[in-house]
């Protein structure tokens, strides 16, 4: 029997809302709201959450630490930025958060693709040099988390006597996740990470990328797991789902699209280039595959596609990704609080995902269903 997909959700540390591309209905990323999303997702039975990174987001490590103390089972996929800090400092952070969360930390390696944002963080390396530096960083980081005292001298980084006084809960270290579509990125994934992530491209393109990563990993005697980052718009009927997708971008202006597309055009991220090519910034090219819709990519960097449809159709599309090697879905929807409930209520049973808890009390007969004894009474 095929194991059910692992389903993660998204913590909107950049803000949230009913619409994208507008400030109408905007919800600020204050801690109270982020905690609402996290505790709802924890209770509903999602396995974990992704926290984004960047200058437009609340700092992911601080937010994850706060949310870890407010949740019980939820895993936290937090950005590890090789170019922004030292491997020894990052190792101490990771070990501390892994202990505070009781072993619920996952690390998302982010090398970065926005030159202006990287410059603000003091990173001025070109694309391939950033990946060379990341490889050195992760070499030191992994050895420290594994309990070694590290002496290392590379082209970009040097460490002498680097060690941890307090180890992580997970051994040899919290798992490393990573997404990137360039040759340099795939080499880094194959060498250093445990889970490779792709954005929501058509199944055939994701399958081709997975094959490349598997081949690269096999050359190194390694195997990886695979995840998909995508949005979900699930409703009881296909018509309702399509209307919800249209409504989500109904307040997007041509100026907002032009501004976003001009910004993403400056990125040297191959993954971003692949995302943009799916729709080309055009409103008339949003249906790119069955149930796969690119409307979010008009005004959103990074993951810009959504699966749109009724529960059976969306589950079928997700199983197609599963068939080519995906075992984890990192999903999201606007607004993230309400959409987490819709996904759990409509999609979990289709995917064979059970609820985290069942209430200890029953329901009021008639209002939330009819109990067996009430049916018998009605027919006696």
Automatic annotation (TrEMBL):
Catalytic reactions on record: an alkanesulfonate + FMNH2 + O2 = an aldehyde + FMN + sulfite + H2O + 2 H(+)
Record protein name field: Alkanesulfonate monooxygenase
Pfam family, one: Bac_luciferase
Similarity comment: family membership: Belongs to the SsuD family.
Residue ranges occupied by any Luciferase-like domain in the UniProt entry: 8-327
HAMAP family for this protein: Alkanesulf_monooxygen
PANTHER family, A to Z: ALKANESULFONATE MONOOXYGENASE, ALKANESULFONATE MONOOXYGENASE-RELATED
Originating organism: Methylopila capsulata
Biological process annotations from GO: alkanesulfonate catabolic process
Entry GO MF terms: alkanesulfonate monooxygenase activity
UniProt function note: Catalyzes the desulfonation of aliphatic sulfonates.
UniProtKB keywords: Flavoprotein, FMN, Monooxygenase, Oxidoreductase
Lineage per the UniProt record: Bacteria, Pseudomonadati, Pseudomonadota, Alphaproteobacteria, Hyphomicrobiales
InterPro entries for the chain: Alkanesulphonate_mOase_FMN-dep (IPR019911), Luciferase-like_dom (IPR011251), Luciferase-like_sf (IPR036661), SsuD_RutA_monooxygenase (IPR050172)
E.C. number(s) listed in UniProt: 1.14.14.5
